[in-house]
Every structure is written in C-alpha cells, then in structure tokens.
Amino acid sequence: MRRAIFLLLSVLLLASCKPGRKVSTSFYYWKTVYRQNDTESTWLQRLHTRKLYVRMMDVDMGESGADPVPVSPIIFQNHIPDTITMVPVVFIVNSVLYNIGKTKLDELAIKMLHFVDAKVEQAGKHSYAELQIDCDWTAQTRGGYFYLLRQIKAHLHHQTLSVTLRLHQVKNQRESGIPPADRVMLMCYNMGNLRKYGSQNSIIEPNELKKYLGSNLSTYPLNIDVGLPLFSWAVVFRKKAYAGIARRINFANLSQRNSFEPKGNNLYTAKTDLPQYGLNKDDVVRWEQASADDLNEVAGYLSRYLKTDTLNLIWYHLDESVLKNYTYDELEKTAYLLY
C-alpha cells in the first residue's frame, strides 16, 4: 500500500512539474506471426496503449536482383483487437535504393500500398490512419528514398506518413536531408558499434546518444516521436573478433559457473566448448540490455530538447520474453519523464 501511494505521489509530482505535452505509449510488433498473447495484452492494457506499430514486411531485392520484393511478410493468426489502432510499418533495405530509376520507384510505391492494404484487411481492420516507413537511408540513397516517400504520400488518402530517424541523420541534417514526411520516429537504440570488442553497450548508451542530439534535436523541423528499446542480446567475440549474436543465450545461462567465467563489465568467457550455444572455448560473450536507469536517463535528456506538443513513445518491442525483464512501474516512470 505504501509503495502504491509513493508511486502515485511521484507521478503527480512529475506531472505537475512538466509542461503540458501529451505522451501516448505504443509498442512495435516485430514478429512474422501475429497471435494474441495474454501477457502481452495485459501490458497493453496496463500502459493504456491504444496503438500498435506492426511490421508488415521487409522490402529487399529479389533473387534476380532486378526488382524489389516483399520479404518475410507477417501472417495474422488473430485479428488486432478493436480497441487497438494499427499502424502498418514497412522496412526498406537501404541497398534497394541504389541505382533504381523513378519508374521502378513509382511501381514500388503502388505495390507497397496494395500489399499493406491487403495485410491491414487480414488484421481485421478496414483502414489505417498512419503508415510508417523504416529505412536507414544515406546521402547516396536519399534522392531515391525521398522520391519514393513523395510517391507514397501522393497515393495516401489523408493518412499520416511517418518515417524512422537514426541519430546520425539528426546530427548530419545537411548530408542526410529532411524526409518529406509528416512525422519522424527517433530510434534511440542500436546506437553503438556492435562489432567492436569491449564492454560498451551497443543497444543504448546515454553518453553516446548525447553526442548526436542536443540543439540538433530542438531545431529539427518535423514532429518527433521516440522509440526506446526493450530487448537484450548476447554478442559473441572469437579471438576479439565479432562472431555474431548468440540467440539461444539468456542472462540466466551466463550465470552457470560451470560454463561461463565472469570477467566483469558484462563480459563472460566460455570455459569449454558449448555447442548448444554455438560457442567455442575462450569465446567472449558481452551481455547487452536496456536497463531502466539508462531508459530514464535518455528520456529525461530528450524531454529537455523536444519541442513537440504531442509525442508517441514507442517501445521496441512487444514480446512476452522481453517484457518479463521490466515492471509496469518502470515503463510508466520513463514515459512520465518525457512529459
């Protein structure tokens, strides 16, 4: 009871000290099959989530290398609940945009929208109010990408067009350009060098984020939403060279002293060959995760520079195995720090 009262007072204090920015909490759904999950549904209810950003497909070049094609499209085993608005998301591999002419981009825009419309119908929805495009464009591909965005927007019927935005695209606005969209979603994750040996956290590193933002963020000319990470992974190094991500390893596995020796700073050495994890003896595993403290530090920092009156906080991503590492209170606190 005392804990609940303390939390309520903290929330009221935060709300009373912040300007009147409206913050809505959302999630990404980034799996290839959509099915209802009781735990995930409870999280949506507890955090008062009314919107779900659902990946529809990736777009990559086909085997012939001649035309872009949909890759790993989502399958809906259940309908999205009526209480949840769905935002379809399409990820475009940046290499698709090299050396592609306007005719093929015109075709791609139409094909993407037809594909999205069909998937939205499969999800049990009749329409959508927002479409999001995810692409890590570069100075070399921005011309084709921005042209594609303008073609997509021309075919939308009053829907919002949002795009994802990386930290380097905020800092290097002159080279990266400002995308022709209504809103941008700032990806505050995957900000470090995953392949570099050492004890850094490539998922989220507040000091690294601050190198890119500050006044660059407050002067950005589009409305900004924020994406924050809810995931972890085990990065493997073999003889100090990057060897991949061990998908089968979780933090509990690393605590098994007969298999791993802790080296400090979230580094662990395999004491023997571990074929069940794809590891050799003396491989080093770096455990990375987004801690509640890091999330709060990032949210508090962003709040000082964001100028928008309305903001979507989009957690990546909605998955029971990920959510078990957090509490409702922790995510609510991070959201209030963005007010």
Structural notes for this entry:
The protein has 339 residues and is an alpha/beta fold. The protein folds into two domains: 22-231 and 294-337, Alpha-Beta Barrel (TIM Barrel), CATH 3.20.20; 232-289, no CATH class. It contains twelve helices and 16 strands. The chain has an eight-stranded parallel β-barrel with strand order 1-3-6-7-8-9-10-16. A hairpin with a 2-residue loop joins strand 13 and strand 14.
Outline:
The chain has 339 residues and is an alpha/beta fold.
Strand content: 25-35%
- Secondary-structure class: alpha/beta
Strand order of the largest sheet: 1-3-6-7-8-9-10-16
Radius of gyration: 21 Å
Q: What's the CATH topology name of the largest domain?
A: TIM Barrel
Number of domains: 2
The top-level CATH class of the largest domain is Alpha Beta
- CATH H-level name of the largest domain... which superfamily? Glycosidases
Distance linking N and C termini? 26 Å
Strand segment count = 16
User: Spans with pLDDT under 50 lasting ≥5 residues?
Assistant: 1-17
List the helices and strands and how they pair.
Blueprint: H1 2-17, E1 22-29, E2 33-34, H2 38-46, E3 51-61, E4 68-71, E5 75-76, E6 85-92, H3 102-122, E7 130-134, H4 142-155, E8 160-165, H5 167-171, H6 173-176, E9 183-187, H7 206-210, H8 215-218, E10 223-229, E11 232-238, E12 241-245, H9 251-254, E13 260-264, E14 267-270, E15 284-289, H10 292-305, E16 310-316, H11 320-323, H12 328-337
Parallel strand pairs: 1-3, 1-16, 2-5, 3-6, 6-7, 7-8, 8-9, 9-10, 10-16
Antiparallel strand pairs: 3-4, 11-12, 11-15, 13-14, 14-15
Helix pairs in contact: 1-12, 3-4, 10-12
